[in-house]
Batch of 4 targets.
Target 1
Amino acid sequence: MDELLTFRLFIATVESGSLSAAAHQQGMALSSASHRLKRLEQRLGVTLLNRTTRVLSLTEEGAAFLQGCREAVAAMEQAEDRMHRRQAALSGEIVVTAPHDLGERRIGPALLAFQRRHPRVSLELHLSDGLSRGVGRGIDLAIRVGPLPDSALIGVPLGDDERRVVASPDYWGRRGRPAHPRDLLEHDCLVLTRDGEPQLPWRFQEGGRALSVPVSGSLRSNSGALLRRWAMEGAGVILKSSGDIREALAEGTLESVLDDFMPLSSGMHALMARDRYRPQRLEALVAWLKQWFREADGEGRRG
C-alpha cells in the first residue's frame, strides 16, 4: 500500500504540474512527498521528473513509468471497487464541478439526495462558470451545458437544456417586448462570459433554420446567477436555462418572450476522463443524475 501511495503521488504531481499541490491532494507534507519521489527515482535508477524553479516536466523514462503507475493504480481501484460491490454499498469520494446557477439550483439537490441514499459516499461540489478544467486532475465529474469542450473527455448526456429569453415586467414595460429575435439588437442584453469571452451570438430558430443574433449590452458576468438577479431587478434581458428561471417565471418576476423562436436546446453532459477506470460510485452517480433530470424535466413540463 505504501508503494501504491507513492505511485499516486507521482501521478498527481505530473497531472497538477506541482509537487506542492500533489502533496496537498494526497494529504502529506511537502518534505515527505519530495522524499518519496527521490527514493522512487533512486530505486529505479532513473530521473522521472525534470525540476526547475517554476516547472516540473516528465523525462522520457518518467513518461514510460507513468503509464505503468496508472495501470497499477487502476488495477488496485478495480480490486477495491469489486470489494465494495461485494459489500453491497457504495463508498469513497467524488469531486464534482458545475456552473454556479446550475450547481446551486439543480446539481446541489441531486447530490444531496444521492448522498443520503449512499451515506458512505463523500461528495464535494466546486462551482465555476468557466469551461471544464481539471477533470482527471482532482475533479472526477464536470457538469456542463453546450458543446463538449475537450476531446480528452467523454460526455454522458443528462438531458436537454431548453432556454428562454426573459426580463422583468418592469423592463418590458419600459422598453417594449421584441417581436423578433433581431429586435434584441435594440435592447440591453446581459451577457454570460466564460474565461473572459462573451458567449455570443445568441442562437434561435426560425422556420426550422438557425438564426444568430449578436446582442450586446452594458453588463456582463461569468456568473449566471448574477445575470439572473440583474434581470429580475430590471437591468436587461437574459437568455437562460428554463430550469434556472422556473420559479421566477412562476412568480412573475421574470417574463419570457420570443417563445415561437425558441432557442435551440443545448445538451447537458456529465464529463469524465476518457482513459480512466471509473469506479462504481461514479457510474452510479451519473445514472442517478440522468434519472433525476429526466424526472425533474418531466415535472417541469407538466407544471
Note: The two ends are 53 Å apart (CA to CA).
Target 2
Amino acid sequence: MNCNQHAAETEPKSTVETIQTEILRRICFLDYQPGDQLKEAELAAEFGVSRTPVRDAISRISHLGLVETRNGVGTVVVALTAAKIRHVYDMRLELAALIGTMSPCAITDADRHAGRELLQNAQALSHDFDPRRYVEVNHRLHRLIASLIGNSALKSFWWQTYYQAASTWYRVGNQMGPEVALALVAELEDINTALENNDTAAVGFIQRTHIGYGYQRIKTHLLSPEA
C-alpha cells in the first residue's frame, strides 16, 4: 500500500495536541511522578495560552487513565494498577499482530535507515546505559513502527496503549540497567531483518513477541506475583 507514512509527523499539530503530547512525554519519562498535580494555571503560563486548551489536553489524557481529578486536590498523575497494566499489554499483543495485515504502509529506504540507526543507539546503550536514553530509543522505535500502520484506527489505538505502557519501561530500566538494553538490541536486530526483507507482517509478529517479553519483565520487577 502506498501511503504517506510520515504525514502525522510533518503536519502541524493543534495547540491542544502539542500540550497533550508534551504532558504525555513528561509522564512517560517520569518527569511527572504519580501523585504530582497538574496545575492548569502554571501550564497555561508555560505554553502561553489560556486555560482552555490545557484543560482540553488534560481531559484527553484522563481517558488513558494516566491522570485523574480528585476533589479538593485537582488533577494528579496516577500509576496504572496491575490489572490495568495487564489489560494494556493484552491489547498491545493483539494490536501488534494486525500491523502487517490492516492496510500496512510500504517499507522505505528511510525506514531501513532509521532501523539501522536505532540498532546502533541500542548497542551503545548496552555498553553505557542511561534509562532516559533507553526510553527515548524506545519512543523512536515506536514512532517507526507506527509509521508502517496505514489503518488510522489501529494507529490511534497503538499510540494510546504505547503511552499507557511507556512509564513502566522507565521504571524497569532503572531496576534492570543494561539488561533491558540488550533485550532492545535483540528486538531491533529482528526488526531490521524484517525491514530489509520488506516484510511488514514480520514486523508485527516481532513486536508481539518482544511486547510479551517486556511484559514478563514488568511482572517480574514491578508487579506482585499474583498480579
Note: Residues 183 and 210 are 8 Å apart (CA to CA).
Target 3
Amino acid sequence: MSIIRQDDFIDSIADALQYISYYHPRDFIQAMHAAYEKEQSPAAKDAIAQILINSRLCAEGKRPVCQDTGIVTVFLKIGMDVRWDAKLSVVDMINEGVRRAYTHPDNVLRASILADPAGKRVNTGDNTPAVVHMEVVPGNTVEVEVAAKGGGSEAKSKFAMLNPSDSIVDWVLKTVPTMGAGWCPPGILGIGIGGTAEKAMLLAKQACMESIDIQELHARGPDNALEELRLELFDKVNALGIGAQGLGGLTTVLDVKIKDYPTHAANKPVAMIPNCAATRHAHFVLDGSGPAQLQPPKLEDWPIISRDAGETARRVNLDSLTKEDILDWKPGETLLLSGTLLTGRDAAHKRLVDLFERSETPPANIDFTNKFIYYVGPVDPVRDEVVGPAGPTTATRMDKFTEAMLEHTGLLGMIGKAERGPQAIEAIRKHQAVSLIAVGGAAYLVSKAIRHARVIAFEDLGMEAIHEFVVEDMPVTVAVDSRGDSIHVSAPRLWQAKIGKIPVVTE
C-alpha cells in the first residue's frame, strides 16, 4: 500500500503546470526543428523559426511559451491499493495545485477560465477549476497526465458520428481545412475512434498527450491498421499544403496520434482535437515517496536559429501611418511595426459595438483613428518586464465585429492570428483596411518588441482590457490586403498544387 500525501499531490500538480508553461517536450522541439529544416515556403519557415526561437527564450527565462496558458486537463489512474493522507478531495487538491501554479509570483500564468459560461462569464481569477478524469485501476501508484490546453486549438475540435461504412480518411481530409489556422499549426492531431460520442472525444484528448514518434513509425513500418492509418493521414494532411500558421507549406502536422475503443455495430464515432504549437503536457507517477521530480531539459536540446527579417521587411511607423500608406501592402509581405497600437479581444469588442449600437461614444482615451488593434490578452508582467508574453489570439472570432469597428473608429487594420472569414474580408475590402498576423506560439518573442504597456480602458475585463502598447520592430505578416486578397486562401492552394498529392479544390 502507498500513502499519497496531500501536499505531495498538490505540489506535483503545481510544479508540473509551471514546468510545462515554459518547457516544450523534447520530442516536439526535435519534430519542429525537422520541419524547419525541410520547409520550402519562406513565410512558413520564418513562422517556424519564430516558434523555435520563442521556445528557447522561454526555457531560458522560465516564462510561458504562449500568452494563452490554457485550461487545465488532468487524467488520473488511481491504484486500488493507494491510500490518501488528505483532507481535501482529489479534485480540490488538483484545483489547489492549479491555483498555486497560476499565481506563482516568479511566473504568473494567465487566468483564462470563466464561470457562468452561458451567462455573465466572470473570470475565476486563478484559472480554476480544472477538468478532471479519474480511473481506478489495480496497483499502488497514482499515474498523472496533466495538460494546459490552449483555447484556440480547443476551439477547432471536431466530432462526427460516421456510418460504419464511411471513410475516416475522407472525413479528416474534408474537415481539417475547415479548421483554418486558429489552432496554430504545425502541431499534433489527436484522433479518437469508437466507444460513444463522449468516449471518442476523451480518446482524442488523450491522444494529443502522447509523444511524437511518426518518423520512427515510418522507418520501421506499421504493425497494425491504426499505425497504417496514422501514416496515411500524416502524409495526406500535410499534402493539403496548409502549412505553418496557415501560410502554405510542407508541414501542417508534426504527428497524427490515434486511440480507439470498441463501439456499437451501428456507429463509428470519430473525434479530432488538434494540439497547437504551444503543446503542453507532462506525465508522472506518485508512489508515496514524495512529490514528482520533473527533470529540466538541457538547453542543447534546442537548435540555435537566427532570423533577420530586416533586409526584406518593410519598416512601418505606426504613429505617422495613413490609409494611403497601406494600399500597396501585399499578402505575405513581412512588416516590422514600430509605434503605438491598441489591444482588444472578444469582450472589449462586444462592449464597444454595444456602445455604437446605442449611439454612444467610447471612453475619451480610446482613439483608434489611423491605428491598429491587436487581438491579444497578455500575461501579467513579472520582475522588470513591460508586459508578459503577448502573442495573438484568433482573429476569426472578431469577424462579426469588424464592419462596425471599421465603420465607427477610423481603424486602419487589425493584428491577430489565423484567417479572416468572408464577412471580415468584405469589410476589410469595403473600408480599404488590412489584416495582419503575428505568429501564434511565439508570445514571449513578441513581448520583447513591446517597449511600453498600460491599460487605458475596461480594466474590469482583466486580461481582455484595452491596453496601449508601444512596440519596436514587431514582426507581422500581411494576411488580407486592402483589396480583400487573403494569403490564407491563396497560399494553401499554391502549396497543395506544388505538393501535388491531392486534387486542388477550386470552387
Note: Residues 151-277 form a domain with the 60s Ribosomal Protein L30; Chain: A; fold (CATH 3.30.1330).
Target 4
Amino acid sequence: MTNMINAAPALQETDELRADIYALLATMLRKQPEADLLAWLKELESDQDEDTPMARAWSTLALAAKHSEPSQLEDEYTQLFIGVGRGELMPFACWYLTGSLMEKPLAFLREDLEILGFERQENVKEPEDHIAALCEVMSMLIRTGRGYEVQHQFWQKHIQTWAQKFFTDLQSAKTAVFYTAVGLLGHAFMQQEDNWYLQLSPAAREGGKQ
C-alpha cells in the first residue's frame, strides 16, 4: 500500500508501539521472515513481571524464532498461505466474511481506501483485503497522524469482523509451527486493540489523543 499523506507528526509512545506491531504483523504475514528479522525476533525480551496475553505472545514468538531457520519458514509460509492451488489458510477478509474471494467486503474496502488516500502498489498481486495489507494500512494511519476515530472506524469495519478468527485458525493450523506464535501475537494484539478503543474517551477519540 502507498499513502498520499506527506506529514508525519510526532507520535505518543503508545501509538508508536501500536504502529510497530501492525507493521511487524504485516511483514510476517506478507512473507516469511528474512534472516535479519528472525535474528531480531530471537532477541526479544518481554517483561518477566508482566503476565498478560501480549507478554506471553512476545515470549512465545521469541522462542519460536530461536528454533526456526529461514529455509524452514519459507516452506511453512508456502504451505500455510500459498500451497498448490491454495494454502491451508486464506488470509482474506472476503473469504472469512462470505466464503468467497472478491466479494462485496472488498468493494467496500476499496471505497474506503480511496477516500483515505491509499492505493495498491503495482507489484502487489493480492487483493487489498489480505490481512497483511490491512495491517499495513493501520500502521500508516497511526504513523501519519490520522485521528483515533478514523483508525477505529477502519479497524471496526475491515479488521475486527474477522481477524480474531483468522489468528485463531493460524494458531491451530496443521502446518503452522513458527506461525502458531504469529497467530498468538495477532490474536492478543487484536484483543488489546479492542479493549483500547473501548477505553478511549469520546474526547480522545475525536481529538486523536489520549
Note: The chain has one domain: 14-207.
